[in-house]
Amino acid sequence: MRRLWLIALREITAYASVPSFWVALLLGPALMLATSLVGAAMAGAGPSAPPPAQSVLLRAEDPALRATALAAIETVNGLGRSKLAVQAAGSDPPADTVIDISGAQVVVRGQALSDVASAILRRDLTATLQQRALREAGVADAALNAARAVRVDVAWIKPAPTATGSQVGPQVGRFTIVMLLWMNLIGALGMLLQAIVRERSNRALDSLLASARSSEIIFGKLLGVGVLSVFVLAAWLAAGAAVAASPLGGLGGGLQTLLLAAFRSPATLVQAGAFYLLAFAMYGSAMIGVGAVAKDLPAAQNLSRPIFGLLLLVFFVALTQLSGDLAQTAWLAWVPPFTPFVILMAPPGTLPLAHILGAFVLMLLTTVVVGAMAAMALTETPLARARKALGFRPT
Questions:
Q1: Regions in the chain scoring below 50 on pLDDT
Q2: Closest CA to 255 of 332, 322, 307, 339
Q3: What is the pTM of this model?
Q4: What's the distance, CA 44 to chain centroid?
């Protein structure tokens, strides 16, 4: 254990002393804060307060037509798009709009009425005058009352959300968490690859193998780089949770609310941390094995392309799950490289518990196998055989 901790401390010291590490650490919280501030600014620059009510002076000698005009104004105000305030004659300041009603003739002076207000006023006054004309023509009041009682109601029934549409919102939040894990994993794997190749090229790895077992070197490096990586990930997740819990989290609305939705769930954040540790152990063991076989950094980069290509495929699978259609990708939970990301993207209750546990057991077994292969790659004899098989010349 002492040798393991010394190797881990060596990695922590090497990377924590580099300014770029602290830049990466602060990058996540800075982006979270900038996103929340932009969202709050956009919310503040959103729709402005409705304009003040338009004052209206009604002039009508016919009481029935005046009452009809007042009722039309109430209807306009009920729509909420514009407000008309009826003003008494002789009020100060004068009304914005003066409406003179004389039989079928309506004259509007001053500020114009909106199209909706004009249409409603014209409709109601026309209906009143038509009723009067029919009554004067001898139509019975019973018939007029029956015609007046007819009303047409238009009701809109909101369509029920589809299964896909109802899941898109929560999926955006989970996708945000997955992308944070994915970006941190990419960075941590790069650190591991550089660490093992650097020590292979300057022969420091040979000195380590002389005083420590290969398994201790692997776990020591995984522990050292893992501590730094988890520290960065924790800072990013904590920043997201802090922004989501602050008043800034609810100001932006829309996409910002969807992005921060998963950060409001402590269970989701804990689950994400556990998934990240498992993914880092599996991918990190494979990266150490690749670095042990390569003779220099260019060779290690070429050998590591399949691993980073696989992680790119993981990204596209998570992007596919963003649509909420999980039936086509649920089987990928049984494929260890995809297991943590597919399960994290799945909404709670979507995958059976036995499915999740079985997939993680398979992933743990894969991690053990990959770690054993990396330990063999660190030893001199398997390393020489691997280099010979890959066509590398001894250095």
A1: 162-166, 381-387, 394-395
A2: 322
A3: 0.62
A4: 21
